[in-house]
Amino acid sequence: MRTEINLILNIPNGSVTATSLGVEGYARHRSPGSGKHFRGKTIMIDLALEGDRPAFRFYEEGGWRDAAGDAAAALAAVRSGKRTKTALSNDGFNITPLDAYRGIFLVKTGGSVLPLAPPRRLIDYLKHGCHEEMTPAQVARSIDRPVPESRAPRLFMILAPIQFLLLTNLAPEEYAWYATHRPGKIFRRLMFVELAAEQPQIAAASRFSDAREKLAADPSKKTKSIVFGECLNDVPFRDWAGYRGDVPGGLYAGDRDGLSLWTFPPAVPRTWDRLDGRDRRGGRGASRRRDNPPGGNPYKDSEGEEDMAGEEAAIVFAIQKKIIGKFRDQCATDPRQAMTLESLNIRKRVAVKSLIKKKILVEAPDDRFYLDEEAAEELFKNRRWIFLIVIIFAIIGLLAAYFLNP
């Protein structure tokens, strides 16, 4: 039987690889290891083939490489027996037409794959005149969209051709048109998502508030960058707009001709969802318990932990070990990876309050916490010493009883 081969574009690094492993097999092959220890999210795009050649034409690059020839050679190498062969080592995103995308897959660090739904064409751009001083209203008219009565800033994460976060007064269709037409800062094509929440683990809260103030103060201002650099690894997929199905969103890709949207499947599999730190009791749209006192965190208590008998203390310590294990399993060991207690399905208040008091769980913005590994190790070290001392005294007691009682 003839083996199926794939040509895969990897985002954000832009490499193109031929493989006989299939998308899921290639994702596992490419994974650096368990998500507990490494960081390496990827967006994999399965490209159209015609036989053992690309079923599309790469855009011209000025002749410095033969992208079509390199891709054909890589596919031929895989057909002859190699499992994977790199066709292009970089910048494949900019030269691959969007209509070559056969499927898009979100890949977590450990190699788990989630296929997105087939694309929906949102808009075709028919006008191309653009200047940097255009107002948001003028941008809307340029794409033949109605001008909204009011605008609220939206947070976008650009994934390709470069990674950065920005706040904008533009809708996705407006931003994609502006980004692929504006002089000087133009993108040949771009891929981005809208985020449902600010990301304090990437940039200081003041960066977000300052950007909002500048957009509000100047109605003609369209965008304000927050931070440049790696973003994909630092933002959970669950924070993408559209993940829960409650608001429009997904993965946007566009060029100067138009914009398309790949949405999440109607039901994100629980096994895939849980790997991203979601509430383990349910998948997409799972309800969360809301028993916090008004204006406070139920796990924070200025009075400290309650007095406990020895047996109860042992039970609490066992629970604390499980809590610490949950944070380690999700790599929530620094402020950038902080998570809410609810997302880890942690409900034991006494055990949590003790860990917070001892600075083993450290609070981050938005009621998130991360594990201080050194403090946790010190806790276990002290407990081991206590256990050892108890054993020694028990042995001394037994020996004393043996020799003192004839």
Order of helices and strands: EEHEEEHEHEEEHEEHEHEEEHHEHEEH
* Mean pLDDT over the residues: 84
Indicate the proportion of strand residues: 15-25%
Strand neighbour order, sheet with most strands: 9-15-14-12-10-11-13
| Amino- and carboxy-terminal Cα gap | 85 Å
Q: Helicity range of the residues?
A: 25-40%
Which regions are unreliable across 5 or more consecutive residues at pLDDT < 50?
276-311
Query: Number of helical segments?
Result: 10
Largest sheet: 7 strands, antiparallel
Helix- and strand-based class? alpha+beta
Give the total of beta strands: 18
Shape: flat
Radius of gyration: 27 Å
Describe this structure in words.
The protein has 406 residues and is of the alpha+beta class. The chain has three domains: 6-115, no CATH class; 120-271, no CATH class; 310-392, Arc Repressor Mutant, subunit A (Orthogonal Bundle), CATH 1.10.10. It is 30% helix and 21% strand. The strands form four sheets. The chain has a seven-stranded antiparallel beta sheet with strand order 9-15-14-12-10-11-13, with helices on both faces. A six-stranded antiparallel beta sheet has the order 6-2-1-3-7-8, with helices on both faces. A three-stranded antiparallel beta sheet has the order 16-18-17. A hairpin with a 2-residue loop joins strand 14 (251-255) and strand 15. Helix 8 crosses helix 9. It is flat. The N and C termini lie far apart (85 Å).
